[in-house]
Amino acid sequence: MRFPLAFAAAQLCAGIAVAQEIPPSERRSGTNFMSAETQAIQADDGSNPGMLWVLQGGSLWDEPAGASRRSCASCHGEAATSMRGVAARYPAFDAASGASIDLAGKIDQCRMTRQHATSLPRESEELLGLTAYVGHQSRGMPIAPPDDARLDAARAEGKRLFQTRMGQLDLSCSSCHDANWRGRLGGSAVTQAHPTGYPIYRLEWQTIGSLQRRMRGCMVGVRAEPFAYGSAEFVALELYLAERAAGLAIETPAVRP
Amino acid sequence: MSRTLVSVPKTARAGEVIDIRAMIAHPMETGYRMGPNGQAIPRKIIRHFACDYDGEEVFSAEFHPAMSANPFVAFSTVATKTGTLTFRWTDDDGKVETASAEIAVS
Fold first, then answer.
1. pLDDT score, position A17
2. Chain A residues closer than 8 Å to B24 by CB
3. Which domain of life is it from (chain B) (predicted)?
4. CA distance A133 to A251
């Protein structure tokens, strides 16, 4: 994302220390802010390009992989049953690593430790496909962050990161997404930054991308050095975003301009 | 890997105009871009798309570098008889990807 520096600075450096959180009654998905045309592409599975990755994820689900020669389906059966609601409660606490883990990380962990296959790089077609496929099984379900005290510290860290000014433009996520979500920036609706539709198909990217790719775009936009894919910082931010969006429906795969 | 997504009505009445849509996962690399090392990224686009209805071509299109990745095509035809619609995408290397869908006409 390319922010016109002067515009962003003039609009947003109006000295917001910590912006007000959005009251629950005013929370709405980014899809609501999109043009009628973009919403129409998203709403119809025959025209939503994100469905191409959902289909690819579905083929991978059934394909044996790694030294185990087992498919996801061989352990999990029908994704429509076993994966329904899973994306709605991620990130979750992962007992194996003793830390919180995001959905893509969990899928890759299963791939490595249970299929004995090589790790899939972040933003690879395969991992995006599997994540879109698993995420799609929860479409329509409300985001339901787990009530798990072991996640409290990371969630609080996510909130702190969301409210911390960063980059050369010295803006926090909150400066835009809490204080100025009604506004527009360089022609785009700022939105409330809810993670409802991820992975999303973004017309600008001409492909599907993860929530972390989206957040990296915002960080580069304020000229901060983006966190690494899969980093504890991004998982913490995802935890806080899920809490902020609790109750909003999953829309994977959403379409953005 | 399923790389294509086609939508055709399952049933129609003879003579009815039906809407057909077809999409394929493809980078549509223009050939005009540079990679990170300054090297030109070779062109790789779909050149030709065609749809046959029961063996007879009812729609075709030439694609060009200015088209987006994952191109989406929508068109209409007249339902004549029960049969198969087949879709063919041919790329620069001559590689052909296909998809098909059945329609029942009464």
1. 53
2. 52
3. Bacteria
4. 12
Give all domains of chain B, ordered by start, each with its CATH number: 4-105 (2.60.40.10)
- Fold match between domain A5-44+144-256 and domain A51-136: yes
Cα–Cα distance, B45 to A40 (Å, whole number) = 26
**DSSP 3-state of A156:** helix
Q: What percent of chain B has pLDDT over 90?
A: 94
Above pLDDT 70, what percent of chain A?
Answer: 93
The structural domains of chain A, with segments of one domain joined by +, span 5-44+144-256, 51-136
Q: What pTM was estimated for this model as a whole?
A: 0.93
- Residues of chain B with Cβ-Cβ distance to A203 below 8 Å are 68
Q: Pick from B70, B72, B97 the residue to mutate for testing the A interface (most A CBs within 10 Å).
A: B70
The token pair that represents A228 in the structure block: 């690494």
- Looking at chain A from residue 164 to 223, which residues have their Cβ under 8 Å from any Cβ of chain B? 203, 206-207
Give the pLDDT confidence of B10-47 residue by residue, as tens digits: 999 999 999 999 999 999 999 999 998 899 999 999 99
Q: How far is CA A32 from CA A21, A37, A208, A255, in A?
A: 19, 12, 20, 11
Give the pLDDT mean for A82-108.
97
Chain A CB contacts of B20 below 8 Å: none
Please answer yes or no on whether A52 and B3 come within 8 Å at the CB atom: yes
Do B23 and A58 make contact, defined as CB atoms within 8 angstroms? no
A91 near A104, Cβ under 8 Å? no
Average pLDDT along chain A = 94
Tell the CATH superfamily of the A51-136 domain. Answer: Cytochrome c-like domain (1.10.760.10)
d(CA A105, CA A131) in angstroms, rounded, equals 9
B21:A46 CB<8 A? yes
Kindly tell me if the per-residue pLDDT of B59 is higher than 70: yes
Could you tell me the CATH superfamily of domain A5-44+144-256? Cytochrome c-like domain (1.10.760.10)
Tell me whether A53 touches chain B (CB under 8 Å): yes
Look up residue B60 and give its amino acid: S
Segment A171-197 shows an average pLDDT of 96
